[in-house]
Specification:
The chain has 172 residues and is mainly β. The chain folds into two domains: 69 residues, no CATH class; 94 residues, no CATH class. Helices cover 0% and strands 31% of the residues.
């Protein structure tokens, strides 16, 4: 009939995490109680697709053969919002009309004007992420002509990177 807030205490029992909630005492024979539990569990990133809870009702009264127990499986749904930001330095580049690409040269300035593209991948949460793959397709050829000469590729923040074999083919 009335609603009461339960007092629950987490503890470890036999190597498992247990949350013990006291429903109150004494209870009348045949009493029916409905309990809504809201659990907040962290660190589920690598738990797979579901987590199972073992719920059991225990009485402190004389031993009862019906210590009701039930298994509840709840799907794990990770939520994280990723955001990709990018910049080119300089933002715009105009090639001079008198400039020509020098075949076979190992000097950087003979291959064009340096433009640096910087991409930042941010996790806006609320969950953490792992195993994220970012694929960038950079058009480096236009027909048989070099459009962008890809010089180098670098990362920061503990990321690993694999690149296309066309990276710095003339070894400038």
């Amino acid at each position: 009939q009335g609603q009461e807030k339960l007092s629950c205490n987490p503890k470890k029992e036999n190597g498992t995490h247990v949350v013990l909630c006291e429903l109150g005492n004494p209870m009348k024979a045949g009493a029916r109680i409905t309990v809504d539990l809201e659990l907040s569990v962290s660190g589920l990133e690598d738990m797979g697709e579901a987590i199972t809870f073992h719920l059991q009702l225990r009485s402190k009264n004389s031993p009862s053969p019906s210590n009701a127990s039930v298994m509840v499986t709840v799907p794990v749904e990770a939520e994280a919002e990723m955001e990709l930001r990018g910049n080119s330095l300089p933002a715009t580049t105009v090639l001079p009309t008198s400039w020509h690409w020098v075949e076979g040269s190992r000097r950087l300035e003979d291959h064009g004007i340096k433009v640096e593209h910087v991409y930042e991948l941010h996790n806006k949460g609320p969950g953490t992420v792992s195993g994220v793959t970012l694929s960038l397709a950079v058009p480096h050829l236009l027909g048989d002509h070099v459009l962008l000469y890809l010089l180098e590729l670098g990362t920061e923040g503990g990321m690993s990177c694999s690149h296309h074999p066309a990276l710095n083919p003339a070894q400038v």
